[in-house]
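The following record pairs a protein chain with its ligand, NAI.
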Amino acid sequence: MPYISGVDLPLLRSTFAVVERRAEHAVTYFYSHLFWRNPGVRELFPENMVPQRDRLFAALTHVVTRLDDPALPGYLERLGRDHRKFLATPALYAAVGESLLAAFAHAAGSTWTVEAEKSWSEAYGLVADLMLRGADESAAAGEPAWWDADVVGHERHGDDLAVLTLRPRRPYPFLPGQYAGVSSLRVPRVWRTYSLGNAPREDGTLELHVSRIRGGAMSTALVAGVRPGETLRLSAAGGAAVAATAPGGLRTYICAGTGWAPVKALLEEAAGADPEAEGRIFAVARSREYLYGREELDALAARLPGLSVTYITSAPRHPRDQATERLLTALRACGRWPDHDVHLAGPPGFLTEVSEVLAELGADPARTRHDVLPRVGRFTTRPASRAEWLLEPPAVHWHDPAARAPGAF
Ligand SMILES: NC(=O)C1=CN([C@@H]2O[C@H](COP(=O)(O)OP(=O)(O)OC[C@H]3O[C@@H](n4cnc5c(N)ncnc54)[C@H](O)[C@@H]3O)[C@@H](O)[C@H]2O)C=CC1
């Protein structure tokens, strides 16, 4: 049963299938319409609109393919709560709805009937209402739209890596293994997610581990620009890769690059709550110079003597991904995979490759935990038909705020 009554779901999906095939065209029309009709709105969006364009259709696809999913209202309420950081007002939701329908009408051509328009208008209204309800509830609970956090430490590890220490100005609730949206005035209105690199501390400080991405404005600003004394913004912590292994349970932690950050947080938690923990840790980096967390990992391993530690890097002058091959060889030599919880963090390609091999080795996919990471998609790589979406629904670029940290704000 669709949870949205009065909306013709098959009609909604068939018009969306037509619009999706002309996605690039529809998105260009949508933003032109939105900015032309609402001149003040352009400045709410980042300067670089290219990633934004993919995000719009990824989000729409997520909603359209799940209109009959009972989990959708909760998802939309959390999304609305998260959108407070974009300063999304009821007027903006209304303007977006108007431009979306105009763009759909334009892209759908003769398939855009009065009935289709009515169904889309009703469906958008319901989506916007649920998102606004989530935003209102979070504001009524006293949750800020974002947390200001002062940079109190900035440690460089070579040209491409930095560990930032932040002190939020008000209590920031999170669980070990979660991530936060981060924004800097150096790159206005852009938000990127980074894992929090520590378990909650008494002094409230947080670590962000940042690897500079070629051409990435935010990662470059955080690694090479930001200095102590500056202020960053954090959105509410989210992420589902947080369930700690029950005391006494076997576990394997595998991290690559700055995927060390959430694993470090989980290990800090285990060192406090479960020092007898048994299992293994694999820390992977493209070269020895990129193993920036070695001292901390050795110190944590000393507090967790039941966990073996293996460092793996590519051989000198070998490609970055040789480290993954070496890791997979090491994982194949390990036993008892069905008995282990596996905590994984690292680049998306790494997660895909390692998860597949772990499943072949007998690890339980339900006990293999990692964040849902965005696929870097362009229109050209988007599935072309509804059948393809069903086989391989595109991942949503917005982070999944499903597992927010509990607590007072
Ligand atoms: N919560 C999480 O899961 C976190 C994920 N990350 C992700 O990690 C990445 C950071 O990258 P860096 O620290 O620069 O790591 P990196 O680019 O130096 O990669 C580290 C290692 O991962 C493996 N790897 C990388 N790309 C691969 C691919 N496509 N296929 C197979 N193996 C691959 C290689 O062995 C490489 O040596 C970002 O993509 C970020 O999104 C970062 C922090 C937390």
